[in-house]
Design brief:
This is NADH dehydrogenase [ubiquinone] 1 alpha subcomplex subunit 8. Helix content is about 60%, strand content about 0%. It is mostly helical. About 15% of the residues are buried.
Amino acid sequence: MNTKSFEVLIHSQYAFHRCRSEVHKYEDCRQTTSPIPKDPRLCRNTARELVGCYKEAERMHPLCLAPFNDVRECVFKADGNIFNCKKESQQFVDCQMNQEKYQDFLALSTDKQKEALQFDFFNYRGHFDKYS
């Protein structure tokens, strides 16, 4: 499996979460009531705002490397299904959104919580899985 595609998936989930309002503004700008598309130059400023937001969202704080690796491993072991990794991906998003709060969370964590995560989707798979 190509883990690079998993990294892109994880970053795109966070980037869309962070840039949701810019995406909606850009889509509203592109909307038209006729079948003829609008001139792209009319939405240039909103497109620049959207690209700037995505560019900013692609920067990863070094503190968030551990939760990012947890999500990446979880997605890899879940055969690319990110919905099985909601808790881990939310932890990565929380770290990216507020590093100080995440650092406090780590400081208050117990030794058991700091251990490496184990992902075993083979033994605990649901009836919807393609292997059952």
